[in-house]
Amino acid sequence: MQSLTDLKDNISFDDFKAEVLKDYKVAVTSRECSLLGRREVLTGKAKFGIFGDGKEVPQLAMAKAFKKGDWRSGYYRDQTFMMAIGELTVEQFFAGLYANTNLELEPMSAGRQMGGHFVTHSLDENGNWKDLTKQYNSSADISPTAGQMPRLLGLAQASKIFKEFENVNAAKFSVNGNEVAWGTIGNASTSEGLFFETINAAGVLQVPMITSIWDDEYGISVHAKHQTTKENISEILKGFQRDKDNKGFEILRVKGWDYANLIETYIEAGTIARNEHVPVIIHVTELTQPQGHSTSGSHERYKSGERLKWESEYDCNKKMREWIIESNFATNETLTNIERTIKREVKQQKTKAWNTFLDPIKKERNELVTLIHELSKSSSNSVFISKLKETLEVISEPTRKDILSHGRKALRYVIGESTLESTKLKNWINERFKAIQHEFSSHLYCETDKSALHVTEVKPAYNDTSELVDGRIIIRDNFDAIFSKHPETLVFGEDTGNIGDVNQGLEGLQAKYGELRVADTGIREATIIGQGIGMALRGLRPIAEIQYLDYVLYALNVISDDLATTHYRTKGRQKAPLIIRTRGHRLEGIWHSGSQMGGLLNLIRGVLVLVPRNMTKAAGFYNTLLESDDPALVVECLNGYRLKERLPANMGNFKTPIGVVETVKDGSDITLVSYGSTLRLVEEAAKQLTTVGIDAEVIDIQSLVPFDIHHDIVKSIAKTNRIVVIDEDVPGGASAYIMDKILNEQNAFEFLDSAPKTMSANAHRPAYGNDGDYFSKPSTEDIFEFVYDVMHELSPIDFPKLT
Ligand SMILES: Cc1ncc(C[n+]2csc(CCOP(=O)(O)OP(=O)(O)O)c2C)c(N)n1
Ligand SMILES: [Mg+2]
């Protein structure tokens, strides 16, 4: 074992001893939380518990090397680290376990995530950036294993960007790019593709990223022999080790119970990553799980007696304790006293957290009991209502569900009785419902004046000399204007840099703005998005390009699990206004005609989904998004880059409004709603329909999420009394989403004289070639006939049967 004096030459023995004891107290406190936490779940006070026991000591070491301005992207075992950097108190730990919805008391997620998911606040209560260089930072954890890795890459890359970008205002985000991004991951989770993709990308990018692998040989019940080749992740990662000829990683190994060596290792890792911008892997072995994986089961079921015995001997806290005594830092008695005091304190804090959680709920319960009691006195159903009061008042630890379900049931007994008491109860329930619903459902999107909905439209400006150009020129010139106007923007993706994207919408821009701002990446969609999330979390404005909409599926989990929930799961205390640029819709074949819009719409709520019908609209969306804080997916029309559009004079300034539809053709007989490439076919069909006397109104949705915020579609239906939604997604895909909005949110039913209809593509992926497209997706003829049939049904005399 390392001698103490080697550890830090510039620290006195007494100071070091104090430091060690302080650390030990954190380790013991954290362990007590885990032990008590499990009990709280087993006695029914909390729903589920997953704790950091057995991983305490390496986290103390990581905390020592972690500096203000640094970032963590980790997982559910890291409570000790959060406590060691002063970002998690015992009371907060239990508030999280109980799912307290008060953000002040439960800053990790205001009860939205299960305990063990950690975060620090980057934004104040008004949504403004705090000074991130002066605080410890943790990105918000997510549960999917290895889901923290793609984001980690971006958090690290941001340091590199801040170091290199000259004009960007880094004041609140970086001090010369000196910040390190620290990742943690369980040994078993390294089996995930996201882990390997991230490691490779970090080696290529050479970013200050330190990945700690907490290795306890298990992933729930599954042993390393089923997880990892050679049962040893650092062994198989050896090829990433840098050498004198090649850049790569520094790979360090250390035992998880060896406090002194852990500190050495972490300080060394921090220095390498911070000073050299070289990524580091720390494989921390010989860790344990004293209580098993989580509160869902017991590890005695799958660990041998021998393993369990080893785990209890090599428990890192126990080993640290032995080392403290061996090294004469404290006696057994002193440590026993410390442990006893901590046990008592943790218990007190736990009780305090429970009472703080329960008291307001009990108060609400008492209010309701009074209201129900008063109601029972004034109602003819007094006996039944009193029964509800009695069952409610005896619940010793009520939930809000208990309270509101009693209140709502009480109302059923006074249907038709309009009394002061029933009105009072109704009002109370409505008010409570609204307030509590907000606790669970707010902040899916930006709620400040930086919401995309607040950006005012600016129309493209044309003059007599405005040329007709290929659509891609408009995209390109607009990006040029964006990069010169917004120094914090950067774009990256496959073929994005050198050739300026496969459709040349970024042609020449790398030469103008440099290889970091207009960058090529490897073929690795998930980490392209992760890069974007991480950089957006650190104040940059990344534009992540996914080459084709079809390949968004490779990054779908990152968009859905991480990006779409960032703002929601932090209740607005972190934001990642990432713009995802892609191109899709009808072109060629199964994987280049993508229109899996229904799937996307349903999986990425929290991200705006924009489907511009041409490049001017698309460019306008980018300009709008850069003024806002909402993340977005923009799908450019793959077959639109060579179509001619007029070149606007106000590049970089015109803004397409978000959530607003556009009526592209007025009409009085029927409303046709569509978006993207298919809209062009609808416009053509509408023109042809006029020849048979059908005057269709055509509406471009433009923005699928948010959807028609002014309810203009129903206004059109009020005029035409008929609606057809035309979509190139599968039946039941985006068209079902659109129809749900029109019928359920806009109440179109009352204006309809014909059945509302959806017309979509065939249920299979689109076949290749022009004929493949014609027989897979709606064609102009299909649309014409479909609409004609609706009119035929209405008036067979005016519109005799076509076929
Ligand atoms: C994508 C995904 N698959 C499965 C799970 C369920 N799950 C949660 S933790 C876990 C095991 C993780 O083991 P390891 O990475 O070694 O971390 P440890 O819990 O041992 O610290 C699994 C399978 C999940 N959360 N996410
Ligand atoms: Mg494990």
From TrEMBL:
<dbReference type="Pfam" id="PF02779">
    <property type="entry name" value="Transket_pyr"/>
</dbReference>
<dbReference type="Pfam" id="PF00676">
    <property type="entry name" value="E1_dh"/>
</dbReference>
<dbReference type="InterPro" id="IPR005475">
    <property type="entry name" value="Transketolase-like_Pyr-bd"/>
</dbReference>
<keyword id="KW-0560">Oxidoreductase</keyword>
<dbReference type="GO" id="GO:0007584">
    <property type="term" value="P:response to nutrient"/>
</dbReference>
<dbReference type="InterPro" id="IPR009014">
    <property type="entry name" value="Transketo_C/PFOR_II"/>
</dbReference>
<dbReference type="Pfam" id="PF02780">
    <property type="entry name" value="Transketolase_C"/>
</dbReference>
<dbReference type="InterPro" id="IPR033248">
    <property type="entry name" value="Transketolase_C"/>
</dbReference>
<keyword id="KW-0786">Thiamine pyrophosphate</keyword>
<dbReference type="InterPro" id="IPR029061">
    <property type="entry name" value="THDP-binding"/>
</dbReference>
<protein>
    <recommendedName>
        <fullName>3-methyl-2-oxobutanoate dehydrogenase (2-methylpropanoyl-transferring)</fullName>
        <ecNumber>1.2.4.4</ecNumber>
    </recommendedName>
</protein>
<dbReference type="GO" id="GO:0009083">
    <property type="term" value="P:branched-chain amino acid catabolic process"/>
</dbReference>
<dbReference type="InterPro" id="IPR001017">
    <property type="entry name" value="DH_E1"/>
</dbReference>
<dbReference type="GO" id="GO:0003863">
    <property type="term" value="F:branched-chain 2-oxo acid dehydrogenase activity"/>
</dbReference>
<comment type="function">
    <text>E1 component of the 2-oxoglutarate dehydrogenase (OGDH) complex which catalyzes the decarboxylation of 2-oxoglutarate, the first step in the conversion of 2-oxoglutarate to succinyl-CoA and CO(2).</text>
</comment>
<feature type="domain" description="Transketolase-like pyrimidine-binding">
    <location>
        <begin position="469"/>
        <end position="643"/>
    </location>
</feature>
